[in-house]
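Fold sample X.
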Amino acid sequence: MAFQAGGQRSAPRPTPTTPEAQAYLQDYAALLEAVPFPSFVVDHRWDVVLANGAFRTLFQGAGPHPTAMPDDNFLRFVLFHPDASTVLGEHESSWCLPMLAHFAATLERYGHDPGLQAVRRDIAQDPIMEAAYRQGLPHWVRAVGARAVEHDGAVRPLHHPDPRRGTTECRVVMEASGTLQELECTRVTLVLREPRRTVQRSPRAGRTTAHLRVVPTAE
């Protein structure tokens, strides 16, 4: 059973069930709840083990989905939830493609993991996403460089439901204590920045050569 900051979750998670691990996660949930920024703990599948109130506030507008709720599996939320782009700004280039690149690397390491294999099957069932995964992703990684696909330290746009924040940015900070590493878990914190005050640019003006529209044209 996994825990959510502020209370226990009803949905089971494949986390260790030793009393010591559970006690640690309960205390870690209290720590997360004291953080003002959206913060959550995921395993290697991006199953959400812990999440704080700021995380739930950020994604409170996400509609129901059978497999891709943000507090269930963040990878699936980014890739498959139809409301993901309403919260995650520049969804395709800033969130989806880096997550796809991270997923591809994780799949090489945990190739027989049934949860990751299920995500791979769902990608394959979507012709556009499958083409992006097989053909577009390698082109994009070469265009932006290996550092751009890393989550830790990346500054990414967000649309916060609180109008005082609105369209803003966050720095993604990923870290793991020794105990979290033993549990094969990582803490992700979205450190919110001050709202943007600049004049909104047109979508065309905001694109760069690294922007991928599904699949690159054939060479």
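Fold sample Y, listed below.
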Amino acid sequence: MPSADQPPLPPVDRIPSDVVAADDYRQAARRHLDDNAWAYLQGGAADELTLDDNVEAFRQIHLLPQPLNDVRGGHTRLRLFGRDYAHPILLAPVAYQRLFHPAGEMATVLGAGAMQAGMVVSSLATCRLEEIAAQAEAPLWFQLYWQGSRAASLELVRRAEAAGYAVLVLTVDAAVFGVRNREQRAGFALPAGIAAVNLAAGANAGLSGTGGANVFDRLMTTAPHWDDVAWLVEHSRLPVVLKGILHPQDARRAVEAGVQGLVVSNHGGRTLDTTPASIDILPAIKTVVGADFPLLLDGGIRRGSDIFKALALGASAVLVGRPYVHALATAGALGVAHLLRLLREELEITMALCGARDLAALDAQFLLNPP
């Protein structure tokens, strides 16, 4: 662990020999990040109960294999929003990636492309969204934080459309930051030279505000509502996906508003503590939206078997967040690609041993105690 007299190690240009699973990258990344970046990356809201539950919930779901099924010719391919993907693992939107690697999102997109993985680029990226798109070799999605007005939000959407992004992901669960005590204790601050370069100066600065009138009388007055969602669906040239849905009633309203996909997510446990683990609420959301509606699961993925469980419970694909940032901090683009390869291979092995030939075969019959 870095200390005041032992600064963080720079990223390496090889895969460490002892890194064979996602959690190994977590341990390796600690040596490459200072306390400031580590608090931002690892922290959750308040007592971090939801942060822990996201991972623990997967451990409570047991696999029930059917080993004699014929899985010859099996694969992990899928089609989402009119595009083909080699596997159901996408990189979740993570802000300020130059906190974790000098090249930031430019390194991440290279790693994603090497493994044909979709990447969701954050509104709070530290590289221009057009430059990221120019390096992409797999579909890019753009994650939108509502910019306080329809005009400002649409301006950002139009840039993403022009740059060739495939899907628009509106995050709806973070109109204000959660109470992030770990960051407060660490005195977190963005270092000089690291900023959300795609946003106008001061945009979203209010997200960090706290307390009384500042929340209700200022910040929440510019938060999006259901009529804004319907407006965005009407004006976007891209499929609109809502990220941060946990309530089945919200899932129903999203479908009625014309949204074309949902991400079941609690924001990695970073906004509101003691919400349910994403995987625990996934089946209820699936019941509302139906079998053919695109549904992604975000939060707690650490193994290929976790991906298997999420898909068996109704997800079309999954988003992976902290694990790929650990890999980015450790070994840059090479680390991101390696992390994706590890998860895909684990998924394939789990499918083979459980007797599932392809993703369409996955359902709750392969789970002993689904939520």
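Sample Y note: Residues 297 and 318 are 5 Å apart (CA to CA).
Also: The chain has 13 helices and ten strands.
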